[in-house]
Design goal:
Layout (H helix, E strand, L loop, with lengths): L2 E6 L19 E2 L2 E2 H11 L4 E6 L3 H11 L5 E5 L9 E4 L15 H17 L10 E4 L2 E3 L10 E2 L3 E3 L4 E2 L4 E2 L3 E3 L4 E2 L4 E3 L1 E3 L3 E3 L4 E3 L1 E4 L2 E4 L4 E4 L6 E3 L9 H21 L6 E7 L3 E7 L5 H4 L4 H5 L4 E3 L6 H5 L3 H7 L5 E3 L1 H4 L10 H9 L5 H8 L1 H5 L7
Parallel strand pairs: 1-4, 1-6, 4-5, 8-10, 9-12, 10-13, 11-14, 12-15, 13-16, 14-17, 15-18, 16-19, 25-26
Antiparallel strand pairs: 2-3, 7-8, 17-22, 19-20, 20-21, 23-24
């Protein structure tokens, strides 16, 4: 047949451990996402057109296809079930040519399936296929620009992504998968684990049955995720847009005591409200909000969270457990990966709390990568935002 119909699994409800902003078909498998393997295979087989049925975040898949634009075939993405007549259908539960009949039913099984795809990808590699990686030694694949000392101990199979730096006396493998742009420092050990791209692994660290991504560590056996605050253990090498920069933190720490003193003076005799909210990295903190005055005074205690590196000046509003549960799964996945700020785009439209029925629409707009003008609008209206006086705290 000249047409393929690819059915992307909707596993968003099971992604409670990693909480990836991407649907499962865009999770990285060695050097590229799972979907890319199928599109490459379609080209190899001379398939004329491909349609993708994706109930989980189809807009993210469309954005990824538009961004890379690597395939010369016609590709359509549908957000609902479509007519499959005359098309050869494939469920994207594994790599092309593999038969994976075991369903994924739990969050832990989802993470293990992702790890198994890495192993399967290396097992399928053949010398006649074109790869940007090269076989450094039998079963050891390195991407372009990788720096590896001679004393590095490899146990096949292993894969190291492009422009990664490996420190001295490291031990990698078996089944070590290290993403592009990472840095594994001296005397570290990676066994049956995934190190995601742009991740730093510190000296004398042993990863076994783990996933390391930025400052997060996932235990594949226990199915749990923890945030590691010590940057010398594991951390992100990329630019983390969810964290405030040094200038933001310095400015907040400079003005926080003065603004809080003014807020206390304005709100004399009035009790502040306190609420537990979730911040990026699954942190739960208590927010204090005053009942009177403009926003800059009502949210004065929030400034200390900027100085601690937990919030930014501009971002979506922080949410409590009930606020998160009221969102649709698709909106939640977009918003929870956006920076959290003291002042938001929704403030400009009179929605000063996530409990406002229209706030989520402004948060979704601001959080979307396609519409990155939301935060710019807040910045341009900074003074107006500071002195807005909502009718409720």
């Amino acid at each position: 047949m000249s047409s393929w119909h690819l059915i992307a699994p909707d596993l968003a409800s099971l992604d409670t451990i990693w909480r990836s902003p991407n649907p499962f078909v865009l999770w990285p498998v060695c050097e590229k996402p799972l979907l890319a393997y199928w599109l490459d295979e379609a080209v190899r087989q001379g398939i004329e057109s491909v349609s993708i049925e994706a109930l989980d975040r189809p807009h993210v898949i469309r954005h990824w296809l538009d961004h890379w634009d690597l395939w010369s075939r016609s590709i359509e993405v549908h957000s609902r079930a479509v007519d499959r007549e005359g098309k050869q259908c494939f469920h994207l539960n594994g790599l092309p040519g593999s038969v994976n009949s075991h369903p994924v039913n739990t969050p832990n099984e989802l993470m293990k399936r992702w790890y198994d795809l890495q192993v399967e990808s290396l097992n399928q590699r053949a010398g006649e296929k074109i790869h940007l990686d090269y076989e450094y030694r039998p079963g050891i694949w390195l991407g372009p620009g990788v720096s590896v000392p001679e004393e590095t101990i490899f146990i096949a199979p292993c894969w190291v992504g492009g422009y990664t730096k490996i420190g001295g006396r490291c031990r990698l493998g078996p089944h070590a998968f290290i993403g592009a742009g990472s840095f594994v420092n001296d005397d570290a050990e990676v066994i049956e684990s995934i190190v995601c791209e742009n991740t730093f692994v510190g000296s004398h660290i042993t990863l076994k049955n783990m996933v390391a991504q930025g400052g997060n560590l996932i235990d594949l056996k226990r199915g749990i995720r923890v945030e590691v605050s010590e940057n010398f253990v594991i951390s992100s090498l990329g630019i983390d847009g969810s964290k405030p920069g040094l200038f933001e933190r310095f400015t907040a720490s400079l003005f926080a005591p003065l603004v809080e003193w003014i807020a206390l003076f304005v709100n004399r005799g009035k009790s502040a409200s306190r609420s537990a909210v979730s911040l990026p990295g699954e942190q739960t903190v208590e927010l204090t909000t005053y009942p009177s005055g403009p926003l800059c005074l009502r949210r004065a205690p929030w400034l200390r969270l900027i100085s601690k590196g937990k919030m930014k000046f501009f971002g979506v509003l922080p949410r409590d457990k009930n606020d998160w549960e009221s969102l649709s799964p698709e909106a939640r996945f977009v918003i929870e990966n956006a920076p959290v700020g003291v002042f938001s785009l929704s403030d400009l439209y009179g929605c000063h709390s996530p409990k406002d029925p229209d706030e989520w629409m402004h948060a979704l707009y601001q959080a979307s990568k396609i519409h990155e003008l939301g935060t710019l609008q807040v910045f341009q209206s900074f003074l107006k935002t500071l002195f807005l006086s909502p009718r409720f705290p």
